[in-house]
């Protein structure tokens, strides 16, 4: 889920709902071949004015907007399939030639508001949830658009009205949430055949920026614009100024040795150590090696990181190979970056690659489609 774009869609839904205006929400359900967006991407279509969100980079938006307005008029959800694999100009008269196929589910205002509340809760309260939405059913007993919500260690909410079907969808949703998958599934049980869209919504990535110096400003700004939860940690209160880091979710005053505990850390946290002070960085590194963070980025050349680890070894801290593998020193992709802004791009790009289990190389060198084998490193 693209958090920043999703927040834009949610805010637009709230505004339109307060104004009592019609709207339709389009969601990509499945893709085949090379497509611009993946399942879960959304486009909000208002009764008038510009749409919010993106499904195809411009290939389909006009067609989907027309469909959205028909859904507003009928009040009935619709599932449609767009095949963009042909290269000739017969398709919609525009010669799209995107070499992919996209399935889109469009639902009216009430359903849009319903899913918006669930997504907002997941983002703002950092609660993972799997949403199972009925797309088609062999029986009118189960209405299209019916949803089940499955959260870890909580009872499910919502119902299709068929207990056996609810149980099966809950199991599928729970499995999808564990792996971070978003997919369309077909379930046949108790005489019902249902096609459902199961969307795993994970809390936003948390980036812990340790060291509130000048170069941290660009990193925090960029990460915040992506919708990440950015936490700035420093033991110098005068550096923890909200005017310096307006996009930060939190400013935490903590000693470097207590950074992991002070900021809160788990597997969906990505720590960047950039205090530019050797002793502070050593204590930051020690703190995060003792935590579950999925990434530890170290500014400075590789020999400096090796020296820091050697110093920790003299103190009796010898990390396992698994913990050593999360260290990235120097932090960032090899982009030839110069200056704080470019360096921020390299670091944030590397964290995104790690979170998505990618190598960060050229897309032209990939075999298969662009979005093959997308998985989240965090659970």
Distance between the termini: 14 Å
The CATH architecture designation of the largest domain is 3-Layer(aba) Sandwich
The helix content is 25-40%
**Principal-axes shape call:** elongated
Report the major sheet.
Answer: 6 strands, parallel
CATH topology of the largest domain: Rossmann fold
Uncertain residue ranges = 88-97, 373-379
In CATH, the homologous superfamily of the largest domain goes by the name NAD(P)-binding Rossmann-like Domain
Per DSSP E runs of 2 or more residues, the count of β-strands stands at 15
Order of helices and strands: HEEEHEEHEEHEEEHEEHEHEHHEH
Number of helices: 10
What structural keywords apply?
379 residues, alpha/beta, five-stranded antiparallel sheet, elongated, disordered C terminus, single chain
Describe the fold and architecture:
With 379 residues, the chain is an alpha/beta fold. The chain has 3 domains: 3-113, no CATH class; 128-201, no CATH class; 206-363, Rossmann fold (3-Layer(aba) Sandwich). It has helices at 3-18, 61-74, 109-124, 163-179, 214-225, 259-263, 278-289, 302-314, 321-324, 339-355; strands at 23-33, 42-46, 52-53, 78-83, 100-108, 129-137, 147-150, 183-189, 192-201, 206-210, 229-234, 250-253, 269-273, 295-298, 327-328. It has a 6-stranded parallel β-sheet, sandwiched between helices. Strands 3-2-1-5-4 form a 5-stranded antiparallel β-sheet. A hairpin with a 5-residue loop joins strand 2 and strand 3. Helix 5 (214-225) packs across helix 10 (339-355) and helix 7 packs across helix 8.
